[in-house]
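For this section, I looked closely at the sequence of one protein beside the tokens encoding its backbone, which the following lines show:
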Amino acid sequence: MRALIRAGSASYFLIGLATVIFGALLPEILHYYGQSYSGGGELVFAQFAGFLVGVLTSPVSAERLGYRGALFLSVISFSTAQFVLALRPSWHLIVLLAAVNGFGFGMTQTVVGTLILESTERAKAVAMSRLEVFFGLGALLMPVVASLLIAIGAWNVSFAILGFGALSLLVMWGRRPWENAQTATVMPVKGSSRPQAGTAAGGDRRGAVLLLALFIGLILMYVGVETSIINFLPSLLIRHIHLRSSVASLSVTAFWGAMTVGRIFAGAIAEKLYYSRYLLWSNVGALAVLAGIALTGNVWGVFLLVLLLGVMMSGMFSISLVFANHVVAGTAKKTTSILIASGGIGGSLFPLLMGWSMDRLAAQGTIWILAMFTFLMLLLLVAIARISRLRGKKAIPQTE
């Protein structure tokens, strides 16, 4: 199963690169094509609309083509989009290619994530956090590469680099021996005896449906907020504290660097604590940091807060997925697909709001909007934790 983990980690690394590339390059792209921030919102919307389609069609694609075929389809779509984007085509074609790009990494993330969740018997939070570490490494590296390429006036080469990376990933999956994912088992982490996802759902069906609805809202808003941050943070800081474009793009590197470090420990911490307790404290911290960014005008202070924001948000997505699979009745494939799809909706709609806000409000106003949604996430988490407790203590992992 080590081959599965290696291939999955490489896939998440590439997805991390792809997720932040438009955010790192957005000021340059908008300047080159003479577009406003609303145009940038449309670009990110197209990418995550494609992402949503990729997520929703992945179960059908996996059923008809098999996991291998679905991955090949997604990676080929992704690589093709990247190579054409590198040619700097017309604006309308770029928007279309952004959708194809999103389709590719959306299907890849869903298929690989489902493989890992179905193949891991125990310590799912640790397994998913390990994948998320590689996602963070990709998201950390891309802004650095983009900043260097922006400095020499070759920002479009960033897309070509991703295209070649996708082809390398295609070769990696092609060489991997495929077995039945349903029977494959990843060895549990030593010392872990957490129950399998879904086995502790219990309770009535109505409660499970309500919990799923709350998780959908939580993931939708989380991915929307995260997507807005990684795509608009450089632009926000250019307007908020007047940074140069090449320096502002490094804010995404700082954010993802902190996210990556946080994810190294997130799974283990969440396994020791209640999942709900970990998520609640992470959300409170993120809310406080966003408020701090809105109120701070010092460059170093803002970058420090960006680092703290990355730490606070580092494990929220993966632990939310694991928590949902633990307390909501149903298979990992069904629950994971629904929640990732809800994230795609948030990731596509929120950038439209951010683009509108950037054109009409001060940078601080846009940051306060993000803080408002983070507060709504906190309310959803409180409701999820309360309902989980009412449905029985087994609905939440216990410390040993």
Q: What stands out?
A: Confidence is low (pLDDT under 50) at residues 179-203, 393-400. The first helix runs from residue 2 to 33. The chain has one domain: 2-178+200-395. Residues 2-178+200-395 form a domain with the Growth Hormone; Chain: A; fold (CATH 1.20.1250.20).
